[in-house]
Amino acid sequence: MYDRKIHPQIQKALLAAGADPGFSARLLANAAAINRLYQELYQDHPNHQQGFEELIRVVIQAAIQRPSVLKEKDTHKDLQHHWYLSNDIAGMSLYVDRFCGNLKALAGKMDYFQDLGVNFLHLMPIFQSPPNESDGGYAVSDFRQVDERFGHMEDLKKVIAAMQQSGMYLMLDIVLNHTSYHHEWAKKAKQGDPKYQDYYYFYDDRKLPDLFDQTMPEIFPESAPGSFTYVEECQKWVMTVFHQYQWDLNFTNPAVFCDMLDNIFFYANLGVDVLRIDAPAFIWKQLGTTCQNLPQAHTLLRLIKLCVEAATPGMALLGEAIVAPKEIMKYFGTGSFRARECDFAYNATQMAVQWDTLATGDVR
Length: 364
What we know:
By secondary structure, the protein is α/β, with parallel strands linked by helices. The protein is 45% helix and 14% strand. The chain is built from 15 helices and 13 strands.
């Protein structure tokens, strides 16, 4: 549906950027829905208009920067229609260091994968995270730097080039819910920068944290009790749902959404075919709730999907929602956004049953 306010604004930005017709058509087709979802989340935020302009800028920039080889791949995938559901795809998940040492060595393993019939790789977390406080790589301190244990960004690019040449697909993770407290945003927040303190959930005292704790279940009650940690450097409390070294991002701030969307596009334009979104059930927090599976979390995922669909349409989204089957179905989208949220998701219950069967030997 044509929007008299939004469409001319976006058309002007597209013309100024010299965007190609295909992308322009996709963005204009999604524009009204993107605006609707954005306004649902941020219409009451004081910087909502500035945030929307930044959102459109990020989407256009991603499309302009997309390499031609990936645009050709987008077209090929579109002709296949739901390419990621093909029965010709056989996947493997691996830890790079345990499999072959580092990314440089991995680039030379393409013949081995072809011999196995594997044409889809999920590389477990490879981006920068602090030793001993990494949560297996899910406490990211830099979303755009490969951890030195695995090599360098150039090594990753060579792996991706080798995979593309071999007709293989790549899946990487992104952690939307939190960053490491060693991330640049967190460091600035510790130093008292109000802009970056608003990137997280900071509180001057225990009043609101205590109210949150009344309804938020503990994720790791033995190793990381509670959902808040005191930060001595700035003498404030910060939300830490998982571990004390993982600070929850504040997606009620549109600047956080735009910056994380920019990171998503960074992966897309590296050549990632499937982006695995870690713990999407936790990405929106609201007082008086469990802060899990909230409607706004789905709104965020739908907004991401529509932006990706416009700028980098060949990248599919996988939601790692460890929830009951009836809740998992919601991550595919509902109502007018059915099939416009995550492209696929894990069946967590089935995975748990399989592991239990292997551990106990009981198939009943």
